[in-house]
Amino acid sequence: MATFEYNALTSAGRLMKGTIEAGSREEVSEQLKQMQLSVNSIDKAKDKKPRTAIGRNQFMLFNQQLASIAKAGIPLEKGLRELSNDVGSKSMRKLIVDIAGELETGVSIEEAFEKRQKRFPPLYGRILKAGVETGRLSEMLTSLNRHLELANHTRRIIFEATSYPAVILALGSIVITAMFLFVIPQFRSVLQEMVGGHLNPITLAVFTITANVIPFWIGVGVFIAAILVALSILSTSAAGRRFKESCFMKIPVIGRVYHSSILGRMAEAMAMMVAAGCDMPAALRLSSGSTGSEKLILESEAIADQIEQGANILEAGQFCRTIPRLFLYSIQLGTQRNELQDNLYSLGQMYAEQARCGQSRLQAVLLPIMLVLVGSVIATAILAMFLPMVQVITALGS
Predict the structure, then answer these.
(1) Which of 201, 248, 208, 211 is nearest to 227 (CA)?
(2) Each residue of 126-147: pLDDT tens digit?
(3) Residue 134: left (phi > 0), alpha (psi -120 to 50), or beta?
(4) Which in 18, 132, 210, 248 has the greatest CB count within 10 A?
(5) 3 state SS of 342
(6) Total-model pTM
(7) Sheet holding 15-22: strands in order across?
(8) 200 burial class (0-12, 13-18, 19+ CB within 10 angstroms)?
(9) Is 291 buried (19+), middle (13-18) or exposed (0-12) by CB count in 10 A?
(10) Are 148 and 258 in contact (CB under 8 A)?
């Protein structure tokens, strides 16, 4: 089905414009004639510009409000209509009203949000589906907000730790680039004369850089652009997102914080599924889907398939790299002792605490590392200028 724009006249001669979905122009013309309209023109509608995603803070507020609606037992469609009256943003208000309208016509909550996946985070519809199916929508949304707050706190730590050194690095780069372009080349002949043409390797390296400053920065720009394009391409497929996630997890400290965060979220979600009466395969699939982690989703799906074929969870999870052995062992032990829900909640708290400890460690090491990096660049440039003088003084002393 395609969308067509039409221009027609009513029997009273009034001009009408609008859009209609049909398989061809002939179908549109036939439909308009049945509506007793005289057709002037029919054109295929232009593709609408894709809407941008809603802001992170705006989404967190919406998610928390949706959790409150679910907790109060208010039907979602009615609650969303009431919520739209309190939203300041016109685009957000229209978005909420449209979703409420679809829910009132019988569209499932997952479908309603999947249609707008460009506006909401990936897998948000799946999270809502898991919450509705288990009767724990409020708890799932509250858990998601805790996960988002933890992620935001990690981003804030990284920003705060890198912003000051990054400003210094940027200013230092401008000053050093200006020195390399206009100042240092003027001293090359003087320094070579001072040491009889035998410059030390550090000074020679700096002079080599001065001759290639512009190509160097062009190369840096191309390199950064290539990384951004590659990340964008990887995000378009599940395999690409898994690869990107694997690389992210290998980053010291940051990767561990992320890993602990998604495991904690999965454990909390599984506890809710178990409390709602889900069997193990369903609990694994739904809880991994609620994390948004493609690696967890892939491994959980494979484990669930093995369990359905009669394997226990430890046997099924032998191949796992993202889900730790401890996680699976705790689940099996909880199942055997009829303490699965308590074990899962304990796992969730343990991994959340690990993530918080990782954040503190990140805050402690990131700023010093950035300052050392900036200082090293500036110190190398200064050292390169003074080493020839040291060579001369040493030669005179001997």
Answers:
(1) 248
(2) 677 777 777 777 877 777 777 6
(3) alpha
(4) 210
(5) helix
(6) 0.58
(7) 15-22, 2-9, 38-44
(8) middle
(9) buried
(10) no
